[in-house]
Amino acid sequence: MEDWIYEEGVAEEAATYKLKLKELEKACAPLYLRASEFEARPKVVSKAREAVNWTLTMLETWAAERPEITADERDKVSGLCANFTEWLSTSETAQANTDDTADPAFLSSEVTAKLDAIEKEMRRLIKKPRPKPVKPKKSNATATNASAEGDAANATDSTNSTDADADSDAGAADSSSSAEEGNRAADAHDEL
């Protein structure tokens, strides 16, 4: 290329230089791709394996803590993880057997694209709402008993207040006995 620039290319126009540049870029693109993948692929694979391990751990935790996520949903994600792990292991073996000057067996972008399906399903499951707690309903017998007890307590309170009013009118000496009756009535009310 250098010879062309100084010999034939000296008299050429800019359009010819642009064409030659495109030819060079096309010839060098595989080299740049292999170099970038050589650095990026191990990082992406490591993060993908961590993501799969985290996903499987979450599925185990959800089996006990998140009843709204069914076994079928957990099995679906677990199957996606198994398929991804199998594909990744096969691809890594193929890459290990590939010469450094050959095209890569797989790209880091492929790993990310295949992992997206698992992440999408996990996001859907994470956002799945928890069931609302079921409030125990009172049966009619319990409600009838509670209202009967409330009526009895109200009757006791009105009787005690009437007694206390009568005793306070009787005099100062009787006021101490009415206070005792009021205390007894309060104790009886607390027991109910």
Q: Could you give the topology of this structure?
A:
Layout lengths: L1 H5 L7 H52 L5 H26 L11 H19 L13 H31 L1 H20 L1
Helix pairs in contact: 2-3, 2-4, 3-4, 5-6
Q: Can you give keywords for this protein?
A:
single chain; about 190 residues; mainly alpha; 6 helices; elongated
Distance between the ends: 104 Å
Name the average pLDDT. Answer: 77
Instruction: Name the helix and strand elements from N-terminus to C-terminus, one letter apiece.
Output: HHHHHH
Secondary structural class = mainly alpha
Number of helices: 6
Specify the biggest β-sheet.
none
**How much strand?**
under 5%
Please state the CA-atom Rg, rounded to the nearest Å: 42 Å
Helix content: over 70%
- The parts where pLDDT drops under 50 for at least 5 residues are 158-178, 188-192
Instruction: List how many beta strands DSSP finds.
Output: 0
What is the compact description of this entry?
The chain is mainly alpha-helical and 192 residues long. The chain is 80% helix and 0% strand.
Q: Would you mind describing this structure in some detail?
A:
With 192 residues, the chain is an all-alpha fold. Helix content is 80%, strand content 0%. Residues 158-178 and 188-192 have low confidence and may be disordered.
